[in-house]
Design goal:
Helix content is 31%, strand content 31%. The chain is α+β, with helices and mostly antiparallel strands. The protein has two domains: 5-224, 3-Layer(aba) Sandwich (Aminopeptidase), CATH 3.40.630; 227-270, no CATH class. The strands form two sheets. Strands 1-2-3-4-5-6-9-7-8 form a nine-stranded mixed β-sheet, with helices on both faces. Strands 10-11 form a two-stranded antiparallel ribbon. The radius of gyration is 24 Å and the shape is globular.
Length: 295
């Protein structure tokens, strides 16, 4: 862990990106370089709450302040790599994206250091591996992490899933699939008998595009059109309900868009070109406070 940046250059290819910024009033000079996987895993074991690194790590990047290693990032895949990306973008495959498996930085670094580290990683991957279209990551809501690091770096929120994991008596986290693979079962009676405590919660998706604007537009359109309007009857009137296409995927961004439009309409905001005269507003009469109290 005490290796210098010069020693790391001997075991890797290329030079890193340099970034100057000020955080908490402290001027920092970060640069990113590829590092050996063993060094990244040792840093994670010493400073990250998860301790372990997923096996599918394809790129290990280190964040240096001068010659000191102050952060690491593991890029690759996690469980079900093709399913993960195609839940958002069905036309993409495993070779089109990287998933951020681990991001770890020393607590002594200033605020927003992780977000600046992410930006440097993004620039490095965009230049060295132009075939990568999207960067993807999960924010661990079950541990109180809603994704502030990604939000500060302008990542897009892609919805959430409900999930679970198990914790041993020693505090070690065990993935549900790992329990099934090693023990062949993970029903409640069995997990309790071996001392595993189940924790349930949410994980939040985030992604950042590395491609050009036209490809971004195509991918977002692909995601937003995952549902189609279906004409139906309700309360003696004809209306349209949005139904997912066959074998489709989640389109949380479309739900967010609809929610924003509804909220804007409630505030009296109209889109350019919309005939305001067609919008019907209910007249609001004056209500006395005594009438409200009497209800």
């Amino acid at each position: 862990m005490a290796r210098t940046a010069g020693q790391l250059r001997d075991s890797s290819t290329g030079s890193g990106h340099v970034n100057h910024f000020v955080g908490d009033g402290i001027a920092m000079n970060y640069h990113v370089e590829p590092i050996p996987r063993l060094l990244m895993a040792a840093f994670v074991a010493a400073h990250h709450y998860a301790v372990r690194v997923p096996p599918h790590c394809l790129l290990s990047l280190g964040c240096f302040a001068g010659t000191d290693l102050v952060g690491v990032a593991s890029w690759g895949y996690c469980v079900r790599p093709r399913h993960t990306i195609q839940r958002l973008f069905p036309s993409l495959g495993t070779g089109d994206y990287y998933e951020l498996n681990r991001l770890c930085m020393l607590d002594s670094e200033p605020r927003n250091g992780e977000s600046h580290f992410l930006r440097l990683c993004r620039e490095y991957i965009r230049q060295r591996q132009p075939g990568r279209v999207v960067l993807f990551s999960w924010a661990d809501g079950m541990r109180g992490k809603p994704g502030y690091v990604y939000q500060a770096d302008n990542w897009l929120y892609g919805g959430f899933i409900r999930t679970e994991f198990y914790v041993t008596a020693a505090g070690e986290v065990v993935h549900p699939r790992q329990v099934t693979t090693r023990c062949g079962r993970r029903d409640r009676a069995f997990t309790r008998s071996v001392g595993l405590r189940r924790v349930r919660g949410r994980q939040f998706r985030y992604c950042h595009f590395l491609c050009g604007r036209s490809e971004v537009h195509r991918l977002l359109a692909e995601h937003l059109t995952a549902e189609v309007p279906v004409k139906t009857q309700g309360r003696n009137r004809a209306l349209h309900e949005w139904k997912p296409r066959a074998n489709a995927f989640d389109n949380h961004w479309f739900d967010c868009l609809v929610g924003c439009v509804v909220g804007a309409a409630m505030c009296g905001v109209t889109l350019p070109g919309v005939n305001v005269g067609l919008v019907r507003r209910r007249p609001r009469g004056r209500v006395r406070l005594s009438a409200l109290v009497g209800r």
